[in-house]
Structures are given as structure tokens and as C-alpha cells.
Amino acid sequence: MFKKNFFVIKQGSNNYMVSDCIFEYYAPIIGRDAAHLYKDLLCQYEHQRLIGNIGTNLIEFLKYLEIDTDLFDILIKKLEAIDLIKTFVIEKENTSTYYFQLNCPKSYEEFISNQKFRHLLLKKIGQKKYEEIEYIHNTKRIPADAINISSTFEKVFGNVEDLESISHENFDKLYEKIIKDYPHIIVFDDTSKSIIESYFKTYDLTIREISRCIYDSIVKEKGETYKIDSYLLQIELKKFVDKTNNVNVLKNIRLNRNAKMFAKHFSKDDIQHVFNDYKILNSEQYLRAINKLPLEQKQLNLINTLRNKYFIPDNIINLMVDFSLFKTSKVNEKYILKMVSTINALNLNSLQEIYDYLTFKNTTIKFDDEENKNLEMLEWSN
Question: 158-162: which pairs have CB atoms within 8 A and are 24 or more residues apart?
Fold first, then answer.
């Protein structure tokens, strides 16, 4: 008799708070049945963990859910298509063993930054409902001009030798400490190292702070080998630094930006350091780090328009701000909005695509008067 068993693997060690996001902005796209299946598999993960990671009979599981294999295949494909699940299989004589890897649902900000997801959600629920969801999540945000006055571990309990700050140049000590303290072999790939080093160069972090983010992004590979998931690491570090979004911290940020990056070819490593800044900091943080002052209301309004009206991700907003400063010596709202029109017309989506276009094309711009009141459409020539 042919058997089908399955195991559920949870990607990373994040807490999966799925109820709100799965049914709020995933279910309209994949359907409520697929959303319920994701939650059922999450429950099955907890069950398997409690009984000693013993596999589950797939046929019995489907009987319990009261669905057939055809419907199950359709629902799994929907979850795979939207990156909530990855499916692996090992085929042996008379037995198929499936491994369903549950990926962490994206936050609302991450979800709508994906243009495919955003436009499909808008198509499914309509403009009015979409604006309601957008309003709910906007009102949950901490205002951009709010200052974080929370105390830190060191201020309350004092410095502990193992938790003392390390210099920006001493990255190797961090890697040695992680490898020494963690009970398994951990692989740091070049992407993860670049992300960690970018955060160290940008923020005055302690070993304790950076280690916590690293531990929460470790995933198991084959055998007893573990690796840092660079995607999870980026999320964990960004969540941490977002808690320290205040003027005093941002005054000390050291950005990798350089106006020459638009005028000549930079090395891949130099560009990656700039890109990491774009990804690490939200647009309010990035512009504050440039100005070293609180933002003006018109600057906050521009960022809000780009983010919530044109659905431009923060990393691309940061790139456009830098390019505007390079071309016009200021954060020129009309220039940036014309840039948005051109980018959308050319269907440029990724940070790399937009940077390449801004750098490698001959860019010209015309003004009808000295005050730039009648800014014309950006003209791009080959």
C-alpha cells in the first residue's frame, strides 16, 4: 500500500501571529479555505513538535479537514504562489514524505511593497475596502516626529562585560562570539555579513542587541548545520532599529551615500553598502540622517504621498531622494513626482533596476523659470 506522510517545518523562530494578517490581506487573494489550511498546518506543526516530530499521515489529515486531495493540491499551490509555503518531497518505494515549510506572513508594509500582491489585493477587494485597510494600518503607526524616550537595558541595569558595545571595525569578534555561544555550526554567508556590518556601521549596537536579531534568524540546513536567513535577519534588525527612531540616534548615523554613485560606476560592494542603507532605514529616518534635523512638514507630506498614494517602497523613496539631491541640490517634490511617473511608465520595479536606469542613462531636465514652478516631464534619452 502506497503511503503519504508529511512534516511541517516553521521557517525561523518568529512568533507567527497569523490571524489578523492572513485573513485581512492574504485571504482576499488566496481565498479563506487556503488561509484556513495555513493555520491548520501551523497547528499541525505544534502537534508534531509536542509528540516528538513524528510525521502525519496525509490521507488521515485530509479526512480530518474534510477535503479531498484535488482541493488540497489547489490550496497548497495558492499558498506556494504567494510565498507562504514551500513544498519538498522525498520519494521512496511505496512512500512519499512531504515537507511543508511555513514561511512567516509579511507585515502589511512588506505586503503592499510587493506590486503584484498590492494590485491583486486592490483588484479583489476594491478601492473603498483597500482604503479602509490602509487607514487602519496608517493609524497604527507611530508618528514620524515622535521621539523614542524608552530606557535601555544598560541605563537601568548598567553595563555587563559580555554585553559591552564593540567597535564598528570589530565584526570578527561578533562572529566568533555567536559561533562560540550557539550549540550548532552556523554558516554566515556574504549577504548576511554585509547586512550585519551595515547595521554596525550605522548604529551603536551592543553584542546583546545584534546577537538577539541573529539568533531569531537562524534556520536549520542539512544535518547539524544551521545558517543565517538573510531575509529574516533583515526583518529582525529593521524591527529593532525602528524602535530607536529618534533624532539623537539619527544624528550619529553614518551613511554610505556618495553623490559620485550617480556620476560614475561604483563597485558592486560600494553600491551594496548604499543599498543596505536604503533598506535599513525608513524614509523619515533616512532623510533625518541626511539633514541631522527634524523633518519639515512638507517633507513628511511628500514621503506620505509617495508611500501611500503611489505605493513606492521606502528603499526606492530613499534612492529618489538621493537622486533629487544630486540633480537639484534639494528634496525637489516636483522632480521626484515626475521621476515616479517616468519609473512607472517604464515599469521599473526593483531598486537595482531604477538605480541602473538613473546611472546609465543620459538624464536631462528642463525648467521654465528660475523658481522651478513649471517643471517639465523628465526626458530620458538613450
Answer: 162/207, 162/208
What's the farthest any 2 CA atoms get from each other in the chain? 82
The gap between the terminal CA atoms of the chain, to the nearest Å, is: 65
230/193 Cα distance (integer angstroms): 9
| Residue pair 48/8 in contact by the 8 Å Cβ criterion | yes
With 90 as the cut, is the pLDDT of residue 37 above it? yes
Q: How far is residue 269's CA from residue 257's CA, in Å, rounded to a whole number?
A: 13
Higher-scoring residue by pLDDT: 215, 317: 317
Q: What's the predicted TM-score (pTM) here?
A: 0.41
DSSP per-residue letters across 164-212: -B--TT-HHHHHHHHHHHSSSEEE--HHHHHHHHHHHHHS--BHHHHHH
Look at residues 176, 236, 179 and name the one whose alpha carbon lies nearest to residue 210.
236
| Residue type present at position 172 | D
Distance in angstroms (rounded) separating the CA atoms of residues 8 and 42: 8
Give the number of other CB atoms < 10 A from CB of residue 111: 19
Q: Tell me the pLDDT band of 191, cut-offs 50, 70 and 90.
A: confident
Are 28 and 133 contacting, i.e. CB atoms less than 8 angstroms apart?
Answer: no
3-state secondary structure of 54: coil
